[in-house]
Amino acid sequence: MLLKVQTWRAFYSQSPSTASFRPSFRAIIAIKRYFMEEYALRRIWCILATAQRVAIFTSFYSSRHMFLYKKLTFVLAVTSLNVGEVSPSAASGKLSKKDIFPYFFRTVPALSAANRTFIAIAKTFAWTRVAILYQSRELFTSAATSLREECKKNGIDVISYGSFLTDPKSQIKHLKDIDARIIFGFFTHSTRTMCEIYKHSMHGRKYGWVINTPDKYGWWKRTLKNVNCSPEEVNEGAKGILLVNYMWLSSSKNETVSGMTPKKFQSSFIQKVRLSSVNDTDYKGFAYDAAWLVALALNRTAQNLAPKIRLDTVAFGERNFSDLMRKNLLSTKFRGVTSIVKLNDKGDRSGVFEISQLIGSEFEAICSHDVGQTSLVFYPGKEFHWEGGVAPVDRQSEQRQLFTMSISVFYFMCSMASFGIFLAFTFLYFNIKNRNKRLIKMSSPNLNNVIILGCILSYISVILFAFDGDHLKAELCTTRTATLCVGFTFVFGSLFSKTWRVHKVTRIISAKKLIIKDLHLFGVIGVLILIDAVILLHWNFLDPYQRQIKYLSALNNHEDDNILHLPYTYTCEVNHIEIWLGLLYSYKGILLLFGLFLAWETRNVKIPALNDSHHIGMAVYNVVIVCIVGTPVVTFVHEKQFEASFIVTGICILFSTTSTLCIVFVPKIAALRKYGINEEYRARTRTFSSLDTFATTTAKCSCSGKDTINKDGELQRLREMLDTLQREKKRTVHSNGSNVTTHL
């Protein structure tokens, strides 16, 4: 509908009852309705008003007018016509552009004016995160665009700004996916939208819908042919929704400029409708105020022109008259049936909006909002009703929660590591106490001590890995990595060094005495430790550990779905972890392979007290199996289950360390218990008082002829050695276990 107000004739007279000149007029107000298809004049109503009173009563089309007649409104309001136009229903935001429509005015607030009401509602409930959903029509597009700008100005984050043409399904699904809780909407397909809201379960205490729609006739409790929902389901989807609409009539009890109260105007209009073929309309109050706005502006214009120019002699579309009329329209202010009427510089009216809520099956007016104010004005005894008794929140409140190792896991792993340390000290006590026994002495007790020290460091690393949360510092991260790295080198470096000595002395072919003392082997271990130190120092200085927060998978609160538990933990991070771990893994891998090679080379040496090749093979086998099984598991569970990652890591370290300790020392303890503490070890080969004597003897036995060993001669010599061993054993028994050194 378009309300086109034109003054065809005005009369000025000197009132006999007053001494001063008072303008009065009769204005013919033409109310025209057009269809866009024909632009045909359907009806002209002429109402004559006397004594400064202008009244307008007419029928309007339904809410569709704002779409059917918008092009006609734009044509009549353009600059080139220079015709003043006052509309009671055209709400498009484009009409506020004065560079295009300088002579367009309206008593109905622009739809974009409702944006301040949306903002006021958001501030009332402390919503700072909203989504905007609108139908793709010019009226709604301009309003939604303006609303997004208003939200930005007021610090409200718009997480989604989406539109639909006829089917809102995809947009509703998107809002569900991004967990939009508060949605501002502009659309006409209200029933279909409520159906999709119901289907996607976007209703209830979690969600707050605030919409503006011109849709009428019970859209919240009906169904349509193309809507696959029952009326009950549509009503369920719309339950609790807030509706922002115009304040069609003021609730004030004061008289308006016409002398009638808004309530009296309402009853008077209804009576006239019943006596005529005119249909009722929600825009009647805005049309009535529009007529009064024009009448009062014409009065002031007539005063400005008098006595030189009569109002009825002004040419239609005359620019000076239009400018003067524009000035008076903008400066006019009065109390109308829709509240105070005052236009701004854009020819728009701020107006008042009413907020209603669907309670049960009907909307109930709760409060109003004057666009010029910041707060809502609640009606007496009215308040919003929310499911659960509280208003929905704009997001799940994130409660950060520091996740640490459970007490049971912490104590269990630390207890196991402590037991391992106790076991290591037990073996250390055994090794020191029996270091002069041939069995222990031949196995290099000093290197055995280094093995035990390495195992203790590995156990300590497990305890260090157990500290997390606020106890986790960058220094702790560096310490536990270095502890585990050095512990590994001590253990396997000692085993490999011992095996290397056996390999060396059993492969000599010179008669010259070859002695490889423990000091030499400590030097080998020192070189390995030096390599560790170089890598770790470069790591620490070039790319040090940093403590960082790592968020785990969010957890919903089953009792309150508005609360989202956000667990986090502290982790040790470096920028190039793959480089440093690659260096360590490569270096340790080469060490393991070298140990396997030495174990294979010395597999035929039949002196259990001397040869640890079998021990090394078993230890390396255990470590490799643990790495193959443990590393993928730790990598897989590390991101989501840090506790499981620690358990797997700790068990791998405990198992490999404990198995290595037991493989090295349990056979020695069993052998001493079997043959007695003071009894000579009953080996299948000859005995030696020291490893130096063994090396010298081996050197001499390894040389024969011109560096060529004859197998038959060697067999004979071995038989002679066996006879000599038996004789020496007899002498040993007679001498009460004194040490005997044999020279061949």
Automatic annotation (TrEMBL):
Residues 416-669 form the G-protein coupled receptors family 3 profile domain. GO terms for cellular component: G protein-coupled receptor heterodimeric complex. GO terms for biological process: gamma-aminobutyric acid signaling pathway. It comes from Stylophora pistillata (Smooth cauliflower coral). PROSITE patterns: G_PROTEIN_RECEP_F3_4 (PS50259). This is Gamma-aminobutyric acid type B receptor subunit 2. Its main location: membrane. Keywords: Cell membrane, G-protein coupled receptor, Glycoprotein, Membrane, Receptor, Signal, Transducer, Transmembrane, Transmembrane helix. The lineage of its organism: Eukaryota, Metazoa, Cnidaria, Anthozoa, Hexacorallia. It is a multi-pass membrane protein. GO terms for molecular function: G protein-coupled GABA receptor activity. The chain crosses the membrane at residues 409-430, 450-467, 479-498, 519-541, 579-599, 619-638, 644-666. It is found in: Cell membrane. InterPro entries: ANF_lig-bd_rcpt (IPR001828), GPCR3_GABA-B (IPR002455), GPCR_3_C (IPR017978), Peripla_BP_I (IPR028082).
